[in-house]
UniProtKB/TrEMBL annotation:
Cross-referenced PANTHER family: BYPASS OF STOP CODON PROTEIN 6
Family designation: Belongs to the major facilitator superfamily.
One Pfam entry name: MFS_1
Gene3D superfamilies in alphabetical order: MFS general substrate transporter like domains (1.20.1250.20)
Species of the source: Aquipluma nitroreducens
Name listed for the protein in its UniProt record: Major facilitator superfamily (MFS) profile domain-containing protein
């Protein structure tokens, strides 16, 4: 690629993701501040944190649709601006409403980073997409490690106010803005390969049903009165209707494989398993005899190392094999965490959980890029966005469960998600082997 500085763009993208990740660690830490100092319930905090996830999704969806029209550079500039506004508003937050608004902008900034950088990495490294996407996504757990250490140092060791911790975000923000400044950004892989916009939409399988479903999920995650009641039959009826609509749009209208909708379904559960648990790490493990921030650093540190060396593992097992193994280990990790008592057992259980969720996010993106390449930037954005919307729905449910049933029951209930994934990934593996006979 002529006049494209691959190394500088990759580093800039990693630093942009670093900002995104540190916001996750900071939220996990200041959750207790807004509970004790500002009087918010955990359910209220769950709703106030929700926009960080569904805002992420909205930005990713919008970015996926318009990135080839406005160019990747514009989406990156939007990410920088939204991050800047969100950080300032977070510093001013004092109640549920102001915390909610701050997280809207932070979510938009985070989503714009993913919407721009996932297709950018795939374009920069067309022959090593899954490997380099894993290396790019090292900086998500890596950033949480850095954020967790900073949270422990600033608030627990130096006993400084939470605003000092949040202000540190301005440093990587300024650096990634500088590195992207003035650089030539290549066209996305879809544009360079000549795949039409209409064909990209078609390869999503059932784009209109998927987008409508995600909009409904955002409403449920944002409006407390719309919270799901799983004792009622209505949520299950809704799921059945969605499945029928996906079949009609994908098979009868678009006449295409439903591989992408299946991958999307798996993404909803992998994201909820990983992010739902880590966002509530403070409340889930605060009585286990060890600082939850240490657990967060251990979990995300293991994830960062695992993702960096993911290339060899994915080559030996193939992406679906990695995902299936990860689901089994994640199930064991959550179950162990639900019975852990004491620092040593909690650390061991957290390490097992970390190995389980380590490869979920980047490998899911890689599966879409490898096996449904014509879905393009839109497919990547829908996957990531829907994963964050699912997490925004899970957060208040988990918050309420922690308050009413306790941390251990909540962790035990969360282990159901990777159990479902085990079945789903077996099915996905069979489908891919039939569709791509050369796959191991």
């Amino acid at each position: 690629m002529e006049n494209v500085n691959q190394k500088r763009l990759f580093i800039a993208a990693c630093l942009a993701l670093l900002v995104t990740a540190i916001t996750f660690a900071i939220r996990a830490k200041i959750e207790g501040v807004f509970s004790t100092d500002y009087g918010l319930t955990k359910e209220q905090i769950g709703y106030a944190f929700g926009p960080a996830f569904w805002g992420f999704a909205v930005a990713m969806f919008a970015g996926g649709f318009i990135i080839d029209l406005v160019k990747t550079k514009t989406i990156i500039r939007m990410a920088f601006g939204m991050h800047l506004i969100g950080i300032v508003l977070l510093l001013l937050a004092k109640d549920m409403t102001s915390l909610f608004i701050a997280n809207v902008f932070i979510g938009f900034g985070n989503g714009s980073v993913e919407a721009a950088c996932n297709p950018l990495i795939a374009t920069l490294f067309p022959n090593n997409k899954t490997k380099m996407l894993n290396r790019f996504h090292v900086w998500f757990p890596g950033g949480i490690v850095i954020g967790g250490i900073l949270a422990w140092l600033v608030m627990d060791t130096l006993n400084l106010r939470w605003e000092i911790l949040v202000s540190l975000l301005f440093i990587p923000l300024a650096i990634y803005g500088f590195l992207f400044w003035g650089q030539k950004i290549p066209e996305t892989e879809r544009v360079s390969s000549g795949v039409s916009y209409k064909e990209m939409m078609r390869n999503v399988g059932a784009p209109f049903t998927i987008i409508a479903t995600v909009i409904v999920m955002i409403l449920i995650a944002s409006v407390p009165s719309l919270s799901l009641n799983f004792d009622s039959i209505y949520p299950y009826i809704a799921v059945g209707i969605i499945l029928i609509l996906v079949l009609i749009e994908g098979r009868a209208i678009n006449k295409i494989s439903l591989l992408f909708p299946l991958v999307l379904f798996c993404m909803l559960l992998t994201a909820s398993t990983e992010l739902g648990t880590t966002q509530w790490i403070n409340a889930l493990l605060e009585t286990n005899g060890i600082n939850p921030m240490i657990i967060l650093v251990v979990v995300t540190g293991i994830m960062a190392i695992g993702r960096y060396f993911a290339g060899g593992l994915i080559h030996r097992l193939n992406p679906t094999g990695v995902l299936l193994g990860s689901s089994v280990i994640a199930t064991v990790g959550l179950w162990l965490l639900s019975i852990s008592n004491g620092a040593a057992m909690t650390l061991l259980s957290a390490a097992v959980f970390a190995v389980g969720v380590c490869y979920f996010w980047p490998t899911m993106i890689g599966v879409a890029s490898e096996y449904v390449p014509k879905s393009g930037a839109l497919g990547m954005s829908i996957l990531g966005g829907a994963g964050f919307v699912a997490t925004s729905m899970v957060l208040p449910i988990m918050g309420k469960s922690i308050e009413t049933s306790g941390p251990q029951t909540t962790l035990r209930n969360m282990s159901i998600l990777p159990v479902i994934l085990i079945i789903a990934f077996i099915g996905l593996s069979i489908i891919i082997k039939k569709k791509f006979p050369k796959t191991k």
